[in-house]
Design goal:
The chain is 33% helix and 28% strand. Helix 2 crosses helix 3. By secondary structure, the chain is of the alpha/beta class.
């Protein structure tokens, strides 16, 4: 397994996003540098998912730029390699197995081996069987989404509400997995409403309030 570089970075400059005439993000300038885990908290509707989608290039900002490992994100350009993400509800081909879904996704940008896919499924507590995704529980689909985000030895990983639908064992699995990713040198950015879990895990936490990102200590003053 290739090791991530230790200088991973997400750099956001003067980022503003307006959706349906409402300013969701307002002139945000911040850098996240790896290895490490960064948490973003805030009530539903404050723009956490919008921020992650904008970082990934799914939403084009009215102002500002996002660069990941010095590559400026632009929806008109090919998406940079070595970035994995789970945004909202993971979508898979339901009549295919989890294994076959990951193999198909892996062929888009690289050739994943059978052993690599089996290993990543084991890491998230799923078996590499032929059971179709249509028969998966919501928790199993979330686990498969996490597997998709971390496969191919990604350097930068973005997770939106990753504990959704996970039971106690699933959350324990995810916590251990994220600790391993930090140790391996990854930069992980997590948006979550699960404050206690995120605060216990993140190296740095920020609150999204009124379109601005502030360190949790400052936001609560």
């Amino acid at each position: 397994m290739a090791q991530p570089t230790n200088n991973n970075q997400i750099e956001i400059k003067q980022l503003s996003v307006v959706l349906k005439r409402r300013k969701i993000l307002s002139d945000i300038t911040i850098s996240f540098a790896g290895p490490g885990i960064y948490g973003i908290v805030g009530p539903n509707g404050t723009g956490k998912s919008v921020l992650l989608k904008t970082i990934l290039g799914f939403i084009r900002p009215q102002q500002g730029t996002v660069a990941i490992n010095q590559v400026v994100i632009d929806p008109r350009r090919p998406f940079p390699a070595k970035i994995g993400a789970v945004i909202e509800h993971p979508g898979f081909i339901e009549d295919m197995s989890g294994y076959d879904n990951l193999m198909a996704l892996g062929r888009i940008r690289s050739q994943l081996s059978h052993d690599e896919v089996v290993n990543v499924l084991k890491r998230v507590g799923l078996a590499a069987d032929k059971k179709p995704v249509a028969s998966y529980s919501l928790g199993m689909i979330q686990r498969l989404g996490i597997a998709q985000a971390i496969m191919e030895d990604q350097d930068v990983i973005l997770l939106d509400e990753p504990t959704n639908a996970l039971d106690k064992d699933g959350v324990k699995m995810l916590t251990g997995l994220l600790a391993d990713l930090r140790q391996q040198g990854n930069l992980v950015l997590i948006a979550s409403h699960d404050l206690a879990w995120l605060y216990s895990l993140a190296d740095h936490s920020y609150e999204l309030t009124d379109g601005q990102l502030k360190p949790v200590e400052e936001a609560n003053v």
